[in-house]
Amino acid sequence: MSLSKDVSVEVFAADFAWGASTAAYQVEGAWDLDGRGPSIWDIFSHTKGRVFEDQNGDVACNSYRLWDEDLRCIQHLGLTHYRFSFSWSRLLPDGTTNYVNPKGVAYYNKVINDLTGKAITPMVTLNHFDLPQALEHRGGWKSPEIVDVFDSYARFCFKTFGDRVKFWITLNEPQIYAKLGYEDGLFAPGVKEKGSALYLVGHNMLRAHARVWHSYHAHFRHLQRGKVSIALNSDWAMPSDPGCPEDVAAAQRYMDFSLGWFACPVFCTGDYPESMRSRIEARNLELDFVDGQRLPKFSEDEPTVLGTADFFALNYYTSRKVKQASPRPGELSFAADQGAERTTDPSWPICGVSWLAVFPEGLRKLLSYIKETCNNPAIYITENGFAQMGPVELEDLDRCQFYRDTLQEVSKAIRDDGVNVKGYFAWSLLDNFEWTHGFSVRFGLFHVDFSRDERSRTVYRSGREYAAVVARHRGHTKFSKD
Ligand code: GAL
């Protein structure tokens, strides 16, 4: 049975965005070519022991050289939208506007012009994990200085590309960046300062995002008429035992400490979720921290964070069953603050990576949750996908089933739950450098042969079937207009 027969395409609006996503460090390669400065991921992946088999993104899919191939892949799928990120240090090698790299500007101009020339709408992420290393030397996201620097970079991008780019994502997954980069040390910059650095980093990311949204709003919106948001990731959390009040509360805390951490300030109250504040404040007393020292306070002297998103950009991958964790007295860590222990339902298949349990129904539930708790925003699902590990299967039937089920859940969210879902972006257009897993984990709609210089792209069956859904939807909307 093919995916195109199963998805109720008539539910999706005529202007529904059908997309796929990538990120600069994961696909571009050309890490030291044409004036690009190093990013924290270059340094991290060049350090022994950080990435599977010490692989790195030096070449990756070589999209810097092979953009024409990528464009062909995008066209092959019939996508209406393409989400990609700028390598900040390709445009501004030391992260600041003191020096602009003309070859970086030329590259992204070509990408954007090629897309718009084919009526494909670009969605650009300004920074997808790969902070310029020069800024890391100045304290990176821990330093309050980053807010001004990020704002200058963003304004430069709006000025240079904003006549053609109408969808901007400031930052990708601040929760993952802060937690994996500063608590677990698994992502660049590889810091393990448990229970403190991640909140500061998250705070500066929110401040920087808000500043950039206000800049766009004040100086560019009237001319460029685009939209700005921040891509937030979240699992869907359910209580292990729905009849147990402690588990119910723990599942809510899990949501508050993941989605709520960033969504609540931007969409709901302008501040962190109450449960985060109260838990962390209570633990501060126990751990001898001053109030506000770990989870910072938003200053009234800065423009508000509330309302700084023109749509909700959601990255969803997996769901969790959650129960109350046993207390960890004296332990300084995010897990101890959160007090929730996650498990995975044994009936959910694990795909590729151990953290990815497949549960498409979770996406529908999460969409409704966002509708209810975040004032019914327009939602673009900016990432969602299925991983393969081990021998390549071009006939990726499990992934086909996954997309079929997922798109059906999205259609139910729209039709039955009234969620305002405006678009869906598959992660990813291409197999690519999957962070600490290197090239061992494949998320692409196109297979990439990393063993050959050509990095040839071959469509997976899931890519063909996704293309069929897009084509059927386009056909349907054309038909219903006639
Ligand atoms: C997201 C991230 C992507 C991609 C994906 C799959 O967290 O934004 O870059 O790697 O996960 O793991």
UniProtKB/TrEMBL annotation:
One of its GO terms (molecular function) is glycosylceramidase activity. The active site is at E383 (nucleophile). Belongs to the glycosyl hydrolase 1 family. One of its GO terms (cellular component) is cytosol. It holds the Pfam family Glyco_hydro_1. Transmembrane segments: none annotated. Keywords: Glycosidase, Hydrolase. One of its GO terms (biological process) is carbohydrate metabolic process. This is Cytosolic beta-glucosidase-like.
